[in-house]
Specification:
Elements (H helix, E strand, L loop, with lengths): L4 E4 L10 E7 L2 E6 L3 E7 L2 E7 L13 E3 L4 E6 L7 E6 L5 E6 L10 E3 L4 E8 L12 E8 L4 E6 L3 H9 L7 E7 L3 E7 L6 E6 L10 E5 L9 E11 L2 E9 L7 E8 L5 E4 L3 E2 L1 E8 L4 E9 L13 E9 L5 E8 H4 L3 E7 L2 E6 L3 E6 H7 L14 E2 L5 E6 L3 E6 L2 E5 L11 E5 L2 E6 L1
Antiparallel strand pairs: 1-35, 2-3, 3-4, 4-5, 6-7, 7-8, 8-9, 10-11, 11-12, 12-13, 14-15, 15-16, 16-17, 18-19, 19-20, 20-21, 20-22, 23-24, 24-25, 25-26, 27-28, 28-29, 29-30, 31-32, 32-35, 33-34
C-alpha cells in the first residue's frame, strides 16, 4: 500500500468563504467557495495558487466543465441564469473571462463533450419550445458544435424524422439526444433513448457531412438479458478514433437485479466489436489503461436484503472489473462491501495506471492496475474479507478526485435544516453550516 500524507489547501488573503466543491484535471485544481472560484496548480506535489476567476459562476450539477491543457483554458457551462444560457471561457493563468458564448436553450441535464484538438465543444440544445407545455424541457433536442476560440456555434445535427414525433411527446423523464463520441476524423455519435420502452437508438454523423441527418444508425435492446425490460445509456469512452465503448444500464423493475452491459462499437458504422458479459449493478465509470490494454469498469451494486433488514441502512458493493480492450473478456474483478468495510465507497478513480478508492469516512486505498490485475484488492480471507485501507482524510468526505500523484477531497461540509423545538411547519428553518476544507494527499 502506498503511504499518503495529507495537506490542507492554504487559506487565501481574499477569503472566499466555506468551500463548496472542486474540479480536478491534473495539474489544475479549480475550487469553488461561496464568494469566488480559485485556480490552483500542482507542481511536483506542491500546490500553488495561480488565479481567481474574474466572474463567480456556480459549478454545474450535471454539465461537466472542460479544461483545455494545451491552451490553459477553462470552459465552464452556465445553463441556469437570468438571460440566455452560455459557455464561459476563462484564461487559467490570469482568471480573465476571455469570452462569453451565448448558447440559447442549452440543456443542463445532458453532457458536454470537449475536443482539445481543435477547441470545439459538442452540446445538446432544445428547439421548438412550446411555453404552454408544463414539462421541461419543451420541444425536441439537437446537437450543436461550439467553436470555443471563435465564440461561434455551427453544424447543428437533428434527430431522424421518425424520432422527432416521439421526442416531441416527451414522457417523464424526457428523451433527448445525448452526445457520447466526438472525434475529429471519424465524426460523432449520440444516443436517443425511449426510457420506458427500453431501447437505445445510436446515431452517427460523419465529420465533413453537411447533412443534418445521421449517416449511420443502430438499435440496442435489453431483451438479450432475461427479465430486463429497460435499457439506458449510462457511461461512454472513446477507446481510439474508431471505437466507442458504451455502458448501458439494464433494469426489469424493483424485483430484479440491476445489470450493466458493456459494448464496443465501431465508428461511424456502429457495428459490434465485442460485448462483455453482464456486470451486476449500475456502472459508475469507464477508463482505459493503454499499457495493459484493459478497460476499467466500476459499478455500484445494491445487495441489501430488503426482506430481512429492519433498519434503513443499505448495503452496497463497489465492483471493479478489468476487461480486455481487444475482446471484452473479463480479466479481473473484485469489490468492496459497505457492510464489511463499515463505510460507503464515495468514489473510485483511475489515473496514471492507478486505482484510488475513497470512502465517505475518509479511508483511502491506492493500488496499481497491474497489481489489481494479478491480485484484486488482495483479500486474504475470501470475498467477505475487509479490504485494508488507510485513514487519510477526516470523516464526512463529500467529493474526491485523483490526479497524477495526489488525491483531492472536500471534507467537513454539513448543511441541514434546524427547526426550533416549538416551531410550526410554516416556520422557515434556519441553516446550520460547518466550514469545509479542501485537502490533498500526495503519494
Amino acid at each position: 500500500m502506498l503511504t499518503l500524507t495529507v495537506n490542507e489547501i492554504p487559506r487565501l488573503a481574499t477569503d472566499g468563504g466555506p468551500t463548496t466543491d472542486f474540479f480536478l484535471s491534473h495539474p489544475y485544481l479549480v475550487v469553488w467557495s461561496e464568494n469566488q472560484v480559485d485556480v490552483w496548480k500542482f507542481v511536483e506535489k506542491h500546490l500553488t495558487h495561480i488565479s481567481t476567476l474574474e466572474e463567480l459562476i456556480d459549478k454545474p450539477y450535471t454539465l461537466k466543465p472542460a479544461l483545455d491543457h494545451t491552451r490553459a483554458l477553462f470552459i465552464l457551462p452556465e445553463p441556469i441564469r437570468v438571460g440566455p444560457t452560455r459557455l464561459c471561457v476563462f484564461d487559467l493563468p490570469t482568471g480573465r473571462l476571455l469570452r462569453s458564448i451565448d448558447v440559447p436553450n442549452l440543456y443542463a441535464d445532458s453532457e458536454m463533450l470537449y475536443r482539445e484538438e481543435d477547441a470545439r465543444a459538442l452540446v445538446t440544445v432544445v428547439v421548438g419550445q412550446n411555453p404552454n407545455r408544463m414539462t421541461e424541457p419543451y420541444g425536441t433536442t439537437l446537437l450543436l458544435e461550439v467553436d470555443v476560440l471563435a465564440g461561434t456555434s455551427h453544424n447543428p445535427r437533428s434527430l431522424p424524422a421518425d424520432l422527432i414525433s416521439r421526442e416531441a411527446e416527451r414522457n417523464i423523464p424526457p428523451q433527448v439526444l445525448e452526445p457520447c463520441f466526438f472525434e475529429h476524423t471519424t465524426g460523432f455519435v449520440a444516443s436517443s433513448t425511449t426510457r420506458w420502452l427500453g431501447k437505445v437508438e445510436l446515431l452517427a454523423w460523419l465529420p465533413e457531412d453537411n447533412q443534418r441527418q445521421p449517416t449511420h444508425r443502430r438499435e440496442l435492446r435489453p431483451d438479450q438479458v432475461a427479465h430486463c425490460k429497460a435499457m439506458l445509456p449510462r457511461r461512454h469512452l472513446a477507446l481510439d478514433a474508431h471505437t466507442l465503448v458504451l455502458a448501458t444500464h439494464l433494469s426489469g423493475g424493483p424485483s430484479t437485479t440491476e445489470m450493466t452491459l458493456i459494448h464496443a462499437l465501431s465508428v461511424p458504422g456502429l457495428e459490434t466489436r465485442w460485448e462483455a458479459d453482464p456486470i451486476p449493478g449500475q456502472v459508475e465509470s469507464l477508463d482505459y489503461v493503454p499499457a495493459l490494454e484493459v478497460v476499467v469498469v466500476t459499478s455500484d451494486h445494491d445487495v441489501t436484503d430488503h426482506a430481512e433488514r429492519t433498519d434503513d441502512a443499505l448495503r452496497f458493493r463497489r465492483l471493479v472489473v478489468l476487461l480486455d480492450a481487444r475482446t471484452g473478456e473479463r480479466r479481473a474483478m473484485d469489490f468492496l462491501d459497505s457492510e464489511v468495510q463499515g463505510a460507503y465507497v464515495l468514489s473510485c478513480h483511475v489515473f496514471g495506471g492507478r486505482i484510488a478508492v475513497v470512502c465517505d469516512n475518509g479511508e483511502v486505498l491506492v493500488v496499481s492496475v497491474a497489481d489489481f490485475l494479478a491480485n484484486g484488492f488482495g483479500k486474504e480471507g475470501g470475498d467477505d474479507e475487509k479490504v485494508v485501507m488507510q485513514a487519510v482524510f477526516p470523516g464526512n468526505v463529500i467529493a474526491a478526485g485523483l490526479g497524477e500523484r495526489e488525491i483531492v477531497a472536500v471534507a467537513g461540509v454539513r448543511k441541514h435544516p434546524v427547526i426550533s423545538e416549538n416551531g410550526s411547519e410554516s416556520d422557515r428553518p434556519e441553516w446550520e453550516e460547518e466550514e469545509g476544507s479542501v485537502l490533498y494527499a500526495g503519494f
